[in-house]
Specification:
This protein has 417 residues and is α+β, with helices and mostly antiparallel strands. The protein folds into 3 domains: 3-113, no CATH class; 143-220, Pdz3 Domain, CATH 2.30.42.10; 230-416, no CATH class. Helices cover 49% and strands 15% of the residues. The protein has helices spanning 3-42, 88-91, 107-135, 154-158, 177-185, 232-270, 289-302, 306-322, 330-343, 349-380, and strands at residues 48-51, 58-64, 67-72, 78-81, 138-141, 143-148, 165-169, 172-173, 191-198, 201-208, 217-220, 223-226, 415-416. The longest helix has 40 residues, at 3-42. The radius of gyration is 24 Å and the shape is globular.
């Protein structure tokens, strides 16, 4: 590669990484602003608003409105200390702003404060979706046969051609590459019927998959944008419907992952661990910040417009994950408040403290798994950290963002070898 081209590639990659880190930072701040603003609205004390992880060194930016605003050395995190919400970690903090005597707030106000971060992430995702609909149009993806795998000539021998659009598997519509791989992987060594579009004409082909449920196709889901006809209200309505549909797909994928994780843990505990099933979701498919940045940088270098969808999905992923009923997450706070409302009294402090402690331990273990998966994926080339190349995709492009590319959900290679 010429020196000038290499420098340009490095510059674009570095800039794309910077943009992805900036997007993640904005989404974190949006989440914490939700907690902060709603807490202030109801009169909760908020002695600290921190950007970054709380256990790292910090610098004070300002002290205003009874709040110390900090930036921490370890970024990509955030927190708001709200002692009156019942956050034990807040009580251990030495505050540089004076606190007033604590007030007792009703459950509904505490619940709204706990939910506000999630609510702001959902609202932000919707606003980005509306902007995308107005500026680009409605995103629509198709599943295109990008390549045929010589080592598995099933599809090519059956008559599949490069450029065909995959519409359905066994008369069940395919929404994207991940969906196609999932549907094919469910039929191992089985007869399947593929509905295709070739030059606008329907084609139906039958073939038998191999033992892994593969037929030898490299797939790609390019995103196109279709102008929304109608006025402001219709466009906003269609944006809401699209966000609802996308969120439903993400929840379905998360459900599959949780089921796979439970199954995987059960197999290891009983000594019946099995090889990973293609198309199945498990602990090995859990990814985090490194993979988000890698994939996001790939998308950005191919088509900056894809960052709209990627930002929407990461924002919704933050909302979904934070709603999980795990102590130390927003969902854990809401679960404690729910039991308090049912019982008429708060959960005992010693019980709550133990649950929060084990919740933190679980999150730390999960973070360790995610980090190992991210590093392994990057070093093995599962998702190469360079301009738009997915080692397993048989093409020079990363798959278009879909519900499987969020950090808590599997990022499936776009191939069915």
């Amino acid at each position: 590669m010429p020196e000038g081209a290499a420098f340009q590639s490095f510059f674009l990659q570095s800039f794309a990484i910077f943009v992805m880190l900036a997007i993640l930072s904005v989404l974190i701040i949006v989440h914490e602003c939700g907690h902060y603003l709603v807490a202030r609205l109801f009169g909760f004390q908020t002695p600290v608003f921190g950007f970054g992880l709380p256990f790292s060194p910090h610098w004070t930016i300002a002290r205003k409105w009874g709040t110390e605003f900090r930036i921490h050395a370890l970024l990509l995190g955030g927190f708001v200390l709200i002692p009156e919400l019942g956050d034990e970690t807040s009580l251990e903090e030495t505050f540089s702003v004076p606190l007033k005597p604590f007030r007792k707030f009703p459950i509904w106000q505490r619940a709204l404060v706990a939910f506000a971060g999630v609510g702001f992430n959902i609202l932000f995702a919707y606003l980005v979706m509306v902007v995308m609909f107005f500026s680009l149009g409605r995103p629509e993806s198709t599943t295109i046969v990008q390549s045929l795998i010589n080592e598995i000539p099933i599809a090519s021998q059956a008559g599949v051609k490069v450029g065909d659009e995959l519409v359905a598997v066994n008369e069940v519509k395919v929404s994207n590459t991940t969906d196609a791989i999932k549907k094919l992987s469910a039929h191992k060594n089985d007869l399947v019927t593929l509905d295709l579009l070739r030059n606008g004409q329907p084609v139906r082909l039958s073939m038998r998959t191999n033992a892994d449920g593969k037929v030898g196709m490299g797939l790609l889901s390019p995103v196109t944008y279709k102008k929304v006809e109608g006025g402001f209200l219709r466009t906003c309505g269609e944006a809401a419907v699209k966000l609802w549909t996308l969120t439903g797909s993400m929840l379905d994928a998360l459900g599959q992952m949780l089921s796979g994780i439970v199954s995987s843990i059960g197999q290891h505990l009983t000594g019946n661990a099995k090889a990973h099933t293609p198309g199945a979701l498990g602990l090995q498919d859990l990814h985090g910040v490194l993979m988000v940045v890698a994939l996001g940088a790939d998308y950005a270098q191919q088509d900056w417009n894809q960052l709209f969808l990627f930002t929407i999905m990461i924002s919704m992923d933050l909302a979904i994950v934070n709603l999980l009923p795990i102590p130390a997450l927003d969902g854990g706070h809401l679960a404690f408040l729910f039991f308090e409302a049912l019982r008429g009294r708060p959960v005992k402090e010693n019980v709550k403290g133990e649950l929060i402690k084990w919740g933190f331990i679980s999150l730390l273990l999960l973070m360790a798994v995610v980090m190992v998966n991210d590093v392994t994926a990057l070093f093995t080339g599962k998702f190469e950290f360079k301009s738009g190349h997915n080692k397993n995709s048989n093409n020079g492009k990363a798959p278009a963002p879909n519900e499987s590319t969020s950090p808590a959900i599997k990022a499936e290679p776009s191939t069915n070898k």
